[in-house]
Write a structure and sequence with these properties.
Keywords: Signal. The chain is mainly beta. It contains no helices and 13 strands. Strands 1, 2, 5, 6, 7, 8, 11, 12 and 13 form a nine-stranded mixed beta sheet that branches. It has a two-stranded antiparallel sheet with strand order 3-4. A hairpin with a 4-residue loop joins strand 3 and strand 4. The chain is globular, with a radius of gyration of 13 Å. It starts with 10 loop residues before the first strand and ends with a strand.
């Protein structure tokens, strides 16, 4: 269960992915500093006050730099985390103190970023907010990683 790239968003929400992750299809994360971009060219960004993630115009700010190592995706020393609660069949994503719990583990499946907890895909649809949702291979679920 690993992730090779990430995208930074001001607000991140995750909605349900249908498929359960298969161990053989999981790509291991490489330790490096990444900028994670959406299919429409925006960068994931961390809101340091609310600890939310969203898609925003790319800049050189540290709030758009993610450290990817193992199954962790970190920004500003915090880990991306799938929230335990859900609203309207979507799961929110936030940056929180790293605990190593399953809700902070991620892996890359093609151009999608999936939660190891539930197999849902990171989704940047609607209002540039990030959420976890059912995987549907839409552009809102496609991410690229750059240094």
């Amino acid at each position: 269960m690993k992730l090779s790239g990430l995208i930074l968003l001001s607000t991140l929400i995750i909605s349900g992915c249908a498929a359960t992750p298969a161990a053989k299809n999981k790509a291991k994360l490489q330790a490096y500093d990444y900028r994670i971009k959406t299919a429409n060219g925006k960068c994931l960004q961390h809101n340091t006050t609310k600890h939310t993630l969203s898609a925003a115009s790319c800049s050189k700010h540290d709030t758009q730099r993610f450290a990817v190592a193992g199954n962790d995706i970190r920004v500003n020393g915090l880990c991306l985390q799938a929230a335990s609660g859900k609203t309207n069949k979507t799961h929110t994503v936030a940056a929180a103190q790293c605990t190593g719990q399953p809700n902070q583990n991620w892996y890359r499946d093609g151009q999608t970023i999936r939660s190891s907890l539930n197999g849902l895909c990171l989704d940047a649809a609607k209002s540039n907010t990030l959420r976890l949702s059912r995987c549907n291979h839409s552009q809102a679920q496609q991410f690229s990683f750059s240094h």
